[in-house]
Predict the 3D structure of the following.
Amino acid sequence: MADCDVNLPPNWRTARDSDGKEYYFNELTGETSWNLPEAEPPAQADDDESKEMELTDQPGIVAIPDYGTARRKSSGKYAELESLIGERVLPRLLIIVVCSVIVMLQSAVGLGLSSTLPNAGYGLTVGLISLLLAMFLIVFAKLKPAMFSNFVIPKVPGELSIMKASTILFVLWWTPGTLILTFFNPYTTTGDSYFAAWAALIASLLILVDSFTRIGEKFKQVTSMRTRQEPQNQSLAGLAIASSVMTLASLQYIGAGFKAAVFGLIVGLISVVCAIIMKVGTDRGRIGLLVKKVYAITFVLLWFIATCILTLGGPFNETGNGFFSTWASMYFIASYTFQIYGGGDFEVTRVLRRSLTMEEVEDGRAK
């Protein structure tokens, strides 16, 4: 027993979470606490029992058992893992486990049905390695909580814990995995593995934000900056991102003989460049209203044509990265055009509710 555990009540031990902060946990009940626990006097239990007996002896009063305490004890093992791995990190790690299983199983089925299915073996590898890493972290934290909390990767600058190192591996593993599997093959259209791959990547990025303080601060700065931006700049930024995704999605179909994919690639590249120029020029005050109006009407017509060609005739006539990014680009340029010519925000949610329901809507709220 460690020296710091001598003065603790029976069954209580000390440990450290992924950030190195010391906490206390009960080996029997799984209860955790940031504060130094105190031993409860035995007389208190007798008082509670006598009060419960008094209640049961009174007519018309029924003593209700404390099911809340039972629930806390039954979830104590999860609470212990939560304290070790992180309150927000653990559920995201479990999401990665589920998504890894989905990608692994569907890729294995694809290999069984057709040994020539493109990238099915790669999908199987991505899911399997991710699952093994996630389960290793959970089992390690469960069986060796003290070692898990105090373990630091040797010969690495700074105190890089095993959780932080694994977070970096998840991001580096799922970023190319998601891009290859959903932009090229075999999960280019929506399905279980399509959504699982994107969910695993998003969960990995969110764990990264929570695990590293500097990255978390930068993320908060970016999100707060986005909320402070003018609606026009938000639309231009969204258009640049959506156009970039659509450009990348078009590459797969160029070699397959889709002439519309070449058109989509050209439109996407032009849209990205022009959106960046318009945003930078607007931020510096060098873009006048006339230029904004000409840009808006030109690109809303261009994207209307592109959306019709790419999503109605192909290659993005099925839901996938290309389909979603094309319609997202159409939405952002329509929003920008409405802001320039209408002088207000493009409140599509309020408009849809007013159009599709019988309720009266005012300021985005139903009366």
